[in-house]
Structure formats: structure tokens, C-alpha cells
Amino acid sequence: MFIEPSLAGGRRGWIEVICGSMFSGKTEELIRRLKRARIANLKVEIFKPAVDTRYDEMNIVSHDENSIRSTPIENSQQILLLAQEVDVVAIDEAQFFDAELPNVCDQLALRGIRVIIAGLDMDFAGNPFGPMPALLAKGEYITKLHAICVKCGHIANFSYRKSQTKDTLLLGEKDLYEPRCRHCYYEEQ
Ligand SMILES: Nc1ncnc2c1ncn2[C@@H]1O[C@H](COP(=O)(O)OP(=O)(O)O)[C@@H](O)[C@H]1O
Ligand SMILES: Cc1cn([C@H]2C[C@H](O)[C@@H](COP(=O)(O)O)O2)c(=O)[nH]c1=O
Ligand SMILES: [Zn+2]
């Protein structure tokens, strides 16, 4: 479990990244950290890409229906304008953002803000997803979570797509994706 380096006192910014496959618990972990920050009376702003309308247009919702209020935005530059006077900035589904997001996070961290990112490290094809590789390179604290492979029960780090659609962006849940381990993922590629 991730233990915060500091919850109160001293404005030192940094970047935390929570990554992994679908169903690995990224959103639950993000919500857990944000609830703790609020308990510590920190001012928190939560963003998600407007394109992510899967469960809800405003809220961030986990597969187990835990949810927290967020602001949907079109591009990463909006975060710099909207995150004024805050202690913590959280961004869910970071893989869908533009290539400027890592620079935006750098600027926030330099302002003294704790930045918490959650996102898919790999797309359905097993390739690094959007700005996630750069965020993983820049982050001080990285948490890689694993789901359970639906085929064999080992740890899963791949998001297997059950449809033939080749577009990178395809919103969905168990209807379209299943978490798989390396062995079971490549068995059917
Ligand atoms: N195959 C699976 N492996 C692990 N968790 C699963 C699986 N299928 C469903 N879940 C549920 O998904 C939850 C995680 O949801 P969530 O935090 O939204 O994940 P993520 O944001 O990484 O997609 C788990 O707590 C569990 O209840
Ligand atoms: C692998 C993959 C996923 N997506 C979509 C499917 C879901 O709507 C989100 C991921 O949500 P989660 O919180 O991580 O479960 O991303 C996609 O568009 N393309 C992909 O390759
Ligand atoms: Zn497996």
C-alpha cells in the first residue's frame, strides 16, 4: 500500500503515478488517496478527460461503483487554469490526454502541488498508452497494480480486447475487455 510521504505541512510538490491494466484497482486507489487528503483538510481538484463518458459524465467511478466528483476537461492546459489555490491535483484516465500532460504535471509540482495520476500503461495492443510513459519517467512515486487474469488466475497486466476494433480509443468494460496475464494475452494474439 502506498504511504504518503507527507500529508500536511510544507508545500513540496511531486508526481505520483498509479498504473496497470483495466480492473487492476487504479480508480479505487486514486479515490482512497483523495479521501485521505481530504481528511487531512487539503484542497483537492480532480480532473478526467471529457471523452471518458463510460460510467458518468462528471464523476470518476470505479468498477465497484465507488465514485468521486470530478471536472471533465478537453485538454491538459485547462488544468493549469483550473487548479488555482489547491494542494492536490488528481487526474484519472490519464492515457487519454494529450502529449502536454507531463509538462503540465511538472509545472503543477513546481508550484508545490501534489499531483496524482491514474491511467492505463498499455493499450489493448500491448503498446505504451498516450502520455503514460513520459509520466512514469517523470514521477517520483510509481505504483503498478495488477488485476486477476480471467483465464488462469495469475496476475494480469494486459487489457485484452474481445472485439476486432483496431481504434485505440474504445470505451468499455467487461463487455469489451478482460484482464489477462502475459501468457494468456499472447495465446490469442
Ligand atoms: N479480473 C479482475 N481482477 C481484479 N479485479 C476485478 C476483476 N474483475 C472485476 N474486478 C473488480 O474491479 C475492481 C477495481 O476497479 P477499478 O478501481 O475501477 O479498476 P481500474 O480503474 O484499474 O480499471 C476490483 O476491486 C474488483 O472488485
Ligand atoms: C485497453 C484500452 C482501454 N480503453 C478504454 C476502456 C475503458 O473505457 C478505459 C479504461 O478504463 P479503466 O478505468 O482502466 O478500467 O479505456 C481504450 O479506449 N483503449 C484501450 O486500448
Ligand atoms: Zn492467465
Automatic annotation (TrEMBL):
GO terms for molecular function: ATP binding; thymidine kinase activity; zinc ion binding. ATP binds at G20, S21, M22, F23, S24, G25, K26, T27, D92, E93, A94, Q95. GO terms for cellular component: cytosol. The keyword ATP-binding applies. The keyword Glycoprotein does not apply. Its EC number is 2.7.1.21. InterPro entries: P-loop_NTPase (IPR027417), Thymidine_kinase (IPR001267), Thymidine_kinase_CS (IPR020633). Substrate binds at Y177. Pfam families: TK. Gene3D superfamilies: 3.30.60.20, P-loop containing nucleotide triphosphate hydrolases. Transmembrane segments: none annotated. The active site is at E93. Zn(2+) binds at C149, C152, C181, C184. GO terms for biological process: DNA biosynthetic process; thymidine metabolic process. It is an enzyme of class 2 (transferase). Keywords: ATP-binding, Cytoplasm, DNA synthesis, Kinase, Metal-binding, Nucleotide-binding, Transferase, Zinc. Homotetramer. Belongs to the thymidine kinase family. This is Thymidine kinase. It comes from Chitinophaga jiangningensis. The gene is tdk.
